[in-house]
Amino acid sequence: MSQSIQDKRRQLIDNIDAYVDSLHGKALSGFVEETGMANLNVKYHGIDVDSGTPNDGGPKFLDLNSVKEMKELAAKQGNLEQISSQSSRHPYNLDAAEKLGVVYDGWHESIQPVPGEKQREPPLWKKLTGDHYQYKTDELVWRSIFTLRVRDHSRPDTVCFLANKDLFKDNQLFVSELTCILGKAKYGLAHHEDGKHLIVPVTVVSAAGRLARIVQGYVDPNTFEIMVRVSEIVDIDRTDEENKEAILKVGCWLFGTPSEETTS
Q: Maximum CA pair distance of the chain?
């Protein structure tokens, strides 16, 4: 590996560590507003929830799974009807968000290889237990339910499901969303030392009660800016049929395929 690549990787990790330190001061508020984003070197853009195409002119990192395939997977699990009818009087709470995450977690668990059992080629993503969370005055306010990493370590792309207690706010990011992006980006840089990957795309499916949005981010290896794309909100607390469509739409992000080169 050339010295320049080593230096760039080290610079990226050092910048991520500095950003995380700055985030600690915002942990109690739970949000990063526009001024805070500027101070953190965050560039805030949009991303289309139906196609995965960002509006910042940058690379598209994830090819979404088809709704057809999601319907087939959901049919095998047999629990789409149940979760689609579980509307809540208080849709913006951690419990409701966790229940959604557990459904997707179960769908991924169902396709993971079983030790000692002969079966088809294992899936692209390896599912891991969530590794980020935060308490406030002894109350859990957010946690990642599960994390997906490319099984053969050929790419650093990461996807995770995040459950939040608080409401979404316009043009603001949860501290939890940035914490997951930065923490998983650092992990990807530290564990892919073959000299190829300097961009670590992290896609967060972020839920607040029965609402969800996509927050995708990475640290630009040339400017060290935190590039963040945020989708429109998907409401999963409507009619049963609308809820089914919304659950499948969000699921397409959790069963997608990495699509863009991450070496520069």
A: 57
